[in-house]
User: What shape does this take?
Amino acid sequence: MRTLRQHRSDRGALSVFVALVCVGLLIAIGLIVDLGGRLRAVEQADGYAMEAARAGGEQIDAGQAMSGHGFAVDPVAASTAAKRYLAAAGVRGSVSVNAAGHRITVTTTYSYKTFFLAALGIGSFTVHGEGSAGLLYGVTQPENGPEKGNGN
Assistant: This one.
């Protein structure tokens, strides 16, 4: 009597499955690490922009303040201080001061070098950040220059 043995062997099938799952997990881990790093880079770009804006916001126009015409930042000194902060941090950016001299805005450009995605040809991400600082003064509540309550 003959036995029919025509079923295929499953030998080695588990090895292929484990290899595919491991490759998938490595790709997922790589995406998590590099995209998480990109999010951190955005936060850093925002942080550099905010700190540069604060540095610029400290440059009060002494002549205007001493003459009693209110407080405003010196646009040239504020821009220079903010750019100096960005240069010390090694970050590129631009600085603007509004016409009233009550708000300084800094926009930064920052780069994040990838770890895992570099293997796929994506070596870095360029991110942008923005921060601003408003000049407020007052004893019991904020006042903004001769036009009270105008924060622009």
